[in-house]
Design brief:
Keywords: Hydrolase
Protein name: Glycoside hydrolase family 15 protein
CATH class of the largest domain: Mainly Alpha
CATH topology of the largest domain: Glycosyltransferase
InterPro entries: 6-hairpin_glycosidase_sf, 6hp_glycosidase-like_sf, GH15-like, Trehalase-like_N
Largest sheet: 15 strands, antiparallel
GO molecular function, one term: hydrolase activity
Organism: Streptomyces spirodelae
Oligomer: single chain
């Protein structure tokens, strides 16, 4: 993944940009070969056979790919440029919407094929390409793209090609810049300046990391990298945090579980803030709280219901549609744009958002009256609605149920609201919130426990396991060492796993459980939740082994998708997934705390 705080690109090991949305994460793709062979791409690929090594340049989201061929060695550096002069917390405020690519000869000679195939609107548009003397420009469609390079590009029908040779010490540079139709034609960075702009982008990322590198535990490097990835999924102009920069990468090859994740879920974004609090950057909280308050219209009452997700610019209507002209990744149809989950009822959002507000209470300082009211509205909504059935945090598309995780997160909402009350001024309702919090707790302890399974289960009255029960100790609802909680952890570890990795939930008939056919892989986040729960329970050896195993499924750059096919080790689902890197940060922190903490005796069982 390349990112600039506004949009993201995916580059494969052959040096091909196969996914790029501009100017935002949720914009229609300019290159979508990821989802269809004819979806467009921008490739710089060595001619003939080659070996590949890749890395992120330290402290950055700039990728260096080293190609070794029979005739030589060359390095390709790829970056989405940040604005000139940006550094630290300003990274991403004024991006030039420009992709920078530079090949450097290291030894011998290497020939590269250059191929530019722009296909705006998810491959629907085949723009005209014209040579400009120092590159090519597109004409037609909703975008303008210009590529600048000293290499003679030959424009054909909706594509441009060239072959370039680099010897040791030589450089070949290209810059591709985007602007919307109707504006002045874009001017890409001149080839002689591309190397310097890439260095500036590297330094900008490093300055952000230097300002926010606060985690110092044994897993420092892994936490630091995941924090950088999460920063790369943050839409800097508003503070929104996307779940992933892609759409429709399937949970099962050939299946229908293909969703658009390029939006800001309250759940995902709130958990991302928690991870950034642990690992890197408390400064993101103010932007996110402002975004959520404004996106929700400053209220979360009956007149302004809080959605579970929004567009990165604050859009409410994220209506889902299918893109039938795209074959999908490995013929996994349908490809979707938009996400119908935006209209679902998910009661967990109140707890996730109030937990983030509580976590950042000191960083946020004195709360503005609008935020005071918004926080109080969230607590009042949790108190009023916790008895309702909902779609649950896994966005089930079947019948609403009384999901355990939703009840627990309503308890979290009320618990954190009580703790935030001194900051909420005249909107605070401490006694009412505390009383309702205790009612929620009693209901969860009584109705959420399955005597038959000997565990807390997916929903009231259900015997089905759900990994979301692992959130109970992570949010402080129950200690991990409490007997029933420990039994639940053991049940999930023993019965809700596939070759040791955790599934989200079990069902005799998955179609009836979530309204969809087919299976899904093991969930990376849930596997990290189990690591955290085991660490909280004092089982640090078991937790550490699972942490290493889950983290080992990352790709060669350290990036994690949403799921893993544990039988063959392949990543599945949208990529890279914020949730997965959130889980890594939380699990690493739990492991490090457990290793440093003295053992303690387990508390008594809850009254139920």
């Amino acid at each position: 993944m390349l990112a600039d705080g506004n949009s993201a690109a995916l580059v494969d090991r052959r040096g091909s940009v196969d996914w790029l949305c501009m100017p935002r994460y949720d914009s229609p793709a300019l290159f979508a070969r990821l989802l269809d062979p004819g979806g467009g791409h921008f490739a710089l690929t060595p001619v003939g056979a080659f070996d590949v090594r890749r890395r992120y340049l330290p402290g950055s989201l700039v990728i260096e790919t080293e190609f070794t061929t029979a005739t030589g060695v060359a390095r390709l550096r790829d970056a989405l440029a940040v604005g000139e002069g940006e550094s630290g917390h300003t990274v991403g405020l004024r991006p030039p919407h420009e992709l920078l690519r530079e090949v450097e000869g290291i030894a011998g000679e290497v020939d590269f094929d250059i191929e530019l195939v722009p296909r705006p609107e998810y491959g629907l548009v085949r723009p005209l390409l014209r040579e400009t003397g120092r590159g090519v420009r597109t004409f037609g469609g909703p975008n303008q793209i210009a590529v600048g390079t000293a290499v003679p590009l030959r424009a054909g029908r909706a594509c441009a090609r060239a072959r370039a040779r680099v010897s040791a010490g030589q450089h070949v540079a290209l810059a591709m810049v985007w602007t919307p139709a109707g504006e002045a034609p874009p001017e890409p960075t001149p080839p002689e300046r591309v190397s310097g702009r890439i260095r500036e982008t590297v330094e900008a990322w490093r300055s952000w990391e230097a300002d926010h590198d606060i985690y110092q535990g044994p897993h420092h490097e892994q936490v630091r990298f995941s924090s950088r990835v999460l920063k790369g999924l943050t839409y800097r102009p508003t503070g929104a945090i996307v779940a992933a920069p892609t759409t429709s990468l399937p949970e099962t090859v050939g299946g229908e579980r293909n969703w658009d994740y390029r939006y800001a879920w309250i759940r995902d974004a709130s958990l991302t803030l928690e991870a950034l609090y642990l690992g890197a950057c408390p400064d993101e909280a103010t932007d996110f709280v402002s975004f959520m308050t404004s996106a929700a219209g400053g209220a979360a009452d009956d007149t302004s219901s809080l959605q579970i997700m929004y567009g990165v610019g604050g859009a409410h209507d994220l209506s889902e549609r299918e893109l039938p002209h795209l074959r999908g990744w490995r013929d996994s149809r349908p490809v979707r744009a938009g996400n119908a989950a935006w209209s679902q009822t998910q009661l967990d959002v109140y707890g996730e958002l109030l937990n983030a507000l509580h976590l950042y209470r000191e960083r946020l300082g004195e709360l503005h009256p609008e935020i005071q009211r918004f926080a109080a509205d969230l607590a009042n909504a949790a108190a009023r609605r916790w008895r309702e059935a909902d779609a649950g945090m896994w966005e089930m598309r079947g019948q609403p149920r009384h999901h355990l995780s939703s009840k627990v997160l309503c308890w979290v909402a009320l618990d954190r609201a009580v703790k935030l009350a001194p900051r909420l001024g005249r909107y605070a309702r401490i006694s009412a919130w505390a009383a309702e919090r205790d009612r929620v707790r009693g209901a969860v302890l009584w109705e959420g426990w399955s005597r038959r399974r000997g565990a807390y289960t997916q929903a009231f009255g259900s015997d089905q396991l759900d990994a979301a029960a692992l959130l109970m100790p992570l949010y402080g609802f129950l200690p991990a060492t409490e007997p029933r909680m420990l039994a639940t952890i053991d049940a999930i570890a023993g019965e809700l796993t596939d070759t040791g990795l955790v599934l989200r939930y079990e069902a005799q008939d998955q179609h009836n459980a979530d309204g969809l056919s087919g299976r899904e892989g093991a969930f990376v986040l849930c596997s990290y939740w189990l690591v955290s729960a085991l660490a909280h329970a004092g089982r640090t050896g078991q937790a550490a082994r699972l942490f290493d195993r889950v983290t080992g499924y990352a790709n060669d750059l350290g990036l994690l998708a949403e799921e893993v096919d544990p039988r063959i080790g392949e990543l599945l689902g949208n990529f890279p997934q914020a949730f997965s890197h959130v889980g890594l940060v939380g699990a690493a922190a739990a492991l490090d705390r457990a290793a440093a903490a003295p053992s303690s005796s387990p508390p008594s069982a809850p009254e139920a």
